[in-house]
Each structure stands twice: as structure tokens, then as C-alpha cells.
Amino acid sequence: MKHLTNKQISFVIKPILFLVCLFPFLLLVLDALNDSLGVNPVETLTHETGQWALRFLLLTLFITPLRRLTKVQWLIKLRRMLGLYTFFYAALHFITYIWLDQFFDWLEILSDIPKRPFITIGFASFLLLMLLALTSTNKMQRRLKKKWVTLHKLVYVIPMLVVLHFIWSLKVDYLEPMLYTIVFLGLMLTRFFHDKKKASKT
Ligand code: HEM
Prior knowledge:
Strand content: under 5%
Bound molecules: protoporphyrin IX containing FE
Radius of gyration: 19 Å
């Protein structure tokens, strides 16, 4: 498994990962069709899509330390798909809000975004995620060159905004966002130690 050909990655690993990542969405669709989303389906959809977006964001960040740890180089080829899935679940989360929470009342939505700080910060994270998704192609990477690397460093800022969005959306029980924060800080620490080791070698 350490060395796979491009063909094996493109025709085996990537399609499997694609289906696995789609699974939470399919489960939500199934639950919606079977009327099994609980007493408050809109709340369930908002929470599930928001949490899956955050989980995929952290999974995307996990790829680089995992590659360094295992020395399995092809793992990096899966990062873009995980990033795009983050955007997919964030878009579903936003659509749930626009459609099922606000009933496409655009004036209400436009006044809600600046009014409630947790919505403001959620919207800002969504816009940043969209920017990363739109510039994620090889063509954009080639076109933007060094700017692309700088731009994609936003991937470290977005989880902070999202965790804040999560905390501010709650009135009690901060355990869940705290767990996500610990995972994020762990990922940042691995990056910090890696950069420090690299700097001491040069
Ligand atoms: C597009 C702008 C966004 C809007 C309008 C929005 C809206 C909401 C709302 C209404 C809630 C539920 C709050 C409650 O229970 O009272 C929520 C929770 C949450 N959102 Fe967002 N959100 C946005 C962006 C994001 C993004 C980009 C992410 C992740 C990448 C995200 C992740 C979460 C999480 C993890 C929760 C908590 C879920 C839970 O309590 O289980 N949100 N958001």
C-alpha cells in the first residue's frame, strides 16, 4: 500500500474515498425520506451538515501529518477531495439555513448575517471555504503560483472561525466544540514541531 500507481489511486482509492465521504449525506437523505430526522428535522439537518463540514475540514488538515508519519506519499493526492467535501457539507449546511430555516426570505437573511455574530462568522468561513474550493484546481494552482500557497494557508484560519461559530451558537454544554478545538490544536502542534525541526536542519 505504500507505493501505488497513479492508475490505482485514480481508479480504486479515489472512487472508494468518494463513496465513503458521500455516506453521511446519503444517510441524511435516507433519514429524511423515512421521516427519521427526529422531532426537529431542520435542527438535525443543520447540526449534522455543520458537524460533517467541520469533521471534513479537520480530516483535510490531518492528511499532511499522516503522510509524514506513515511516509505514504500518495495520501496527499486525497487532500483536495476531502477539502471539496468540506465545502460540499458546508454548502448543504448553508442551504438548510436559507431554505428550511429562513424560507428564502433574502431580506431577513441579509439582515440576520450582520446581526447575529455566530452567523456572521459562519458566513465568513463559508466564503473563505468557497474561495479555496474555487481555486483548488491544478490550473488555478499553476496560475496563482506562490500566491496559491499563501491563499491556501487560510485552511488553518477557517477551523478557528468555525469552532468560534460553533461555540457562539450554543447556550450551554461546550464539550463538543472543545473536543474539535483539541483535535485542531493537536494538528497545529504537529505542524509547529515539523517546521521547527526543518528550520533547525537549515
Ligand atoms: C454559511 C454560513 C453559515 C450559516 C448561516 C450557519 C448557520 C448555523 C446555524 C443556524 C447553526 C445552528 C445553531 C443552533 O443550534 O441554534 C449552526 C451550527 C453549526 N455550524 Fe454553521 N453556519 C454557517 C457556516 C458554517 C460553516 C462554514 C461550518 C463548517 C465548516 C459550520 C459548522 C457548524 C457547526 C459545527 C455547528 C454546530 C452544530 C451542532 O450544534 O451540532 N457552519 N450553523
